[in-house]
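for the recovery benchmark. tokens below, seq after
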């Protein structure tokens, strides 16, 4: 691992110069060790859902990863867990609840899968204080409009808990990825608070459309705009004006620790975009997330 990537000063300089208290990162991963080891092994193999060499920059013990985020000045982060098969989500929720209890700066995270009983464990997660859900349409290989999920979405919509959802067709398309199924989901549950991961990469324009159309649809910046992502899925230049205009609905995400570059690059990539000013950066790095998750700065 490149030791320079763990240097906190380049990251801290950015948010200190902006005059904000730190960073709210809505897209970070903490998982049971057995699961994280399998995720890293999949990235190492450049499996079909990855499709290219993908070195893990922050491959370290869990305690070091938490300490690294804190040294960067990340005030709140998530433990985005996600199942790839039945009978896994409830166990992940139990682990994530314990992790959040032991890690006060981690937003209590939960997940679900289309299976009998999903509504029960989702209700239990909400009742226990889950502040965000994670859904990975690509890895889970299920439709967000699966009938088994209808009561789940209803509970989440009623509770107004945000959902970070990987539904774009990057880095490789899945059987159920893309904007059409999310559009169908929102017709059923128009008040769902969805945070579209990776800006909807590579269907950026279509997910920007949904963000404009639905009050509670948002986007996270995870991996978008970086040199790594621009090689395969560059953001369309024609949409930069909309990106600027929607700054109040965009949230910073890093994908830490599973990124093939340093954390600072994810932020500097944003600073260099056309039309982006300090107010936009303040909102995206801190203000929007602080408001959504009730963080007192």
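predicted aa per position
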């Amino acid at each position: 691992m490149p030791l320079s990537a763990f240097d906190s000063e380049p990251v801290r300089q950015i948010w200190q110069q902006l005059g904000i208290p730190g960073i709210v990162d809505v897209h970070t991963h903490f998982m049971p060790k057995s699961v994280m080891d399998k995720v890293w092994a999949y990235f190492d193999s450049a499996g079909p859902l990855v499709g290219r060499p993908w070195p893990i920059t922050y491959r370290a013990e869990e305690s070091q990863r938490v300490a690294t985020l804190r040294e960067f000045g990340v005030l709140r982060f998530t433990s985005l867990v996600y199942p790839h098969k039945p009978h896994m989500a409830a166990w992940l929720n139990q682990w994530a609840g314990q992790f959040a209890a032991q890690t006060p700066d981690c937003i209590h995270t939960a997940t679900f899968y289309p299976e009998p009983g999903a509504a029960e464990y989702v209700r239990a997660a909400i009742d226990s204080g889950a502040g965000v859900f994670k859904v990975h349409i690509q890895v889970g290989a299920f439709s967000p409009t699966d009938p088994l999920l209808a009561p789940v979405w209803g509970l989440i919509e009623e509770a107004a808990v945000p959902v970070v959802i990987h539904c774009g067709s990057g880095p490789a398309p899945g059987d159920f990825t893309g904007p059409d199924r999310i559009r169908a989901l929102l017709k059923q549950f128009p008040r769902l608070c969805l945070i579209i991961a990776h800006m909807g990469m590579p269907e950026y324009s279509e997910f920007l459309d949904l963000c404009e159309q639905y009050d509670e649809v948002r986007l996270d910046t995870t991996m978008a705009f970086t040199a790594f992502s621009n090689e395969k899925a560059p953001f369309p230049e024609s949409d930069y004006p909309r990106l600027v205009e929607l700054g109040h609905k965009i949230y910073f995400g890093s994908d830490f620790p599973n990124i093939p570059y340093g954390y600072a690059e994810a932020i500097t990539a944003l600073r260099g975009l056309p039309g982006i000013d300090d107010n936009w950066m303040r909102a995206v790095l801190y203000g929007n997330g602080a408001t959504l998750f009730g963080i007192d700065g």
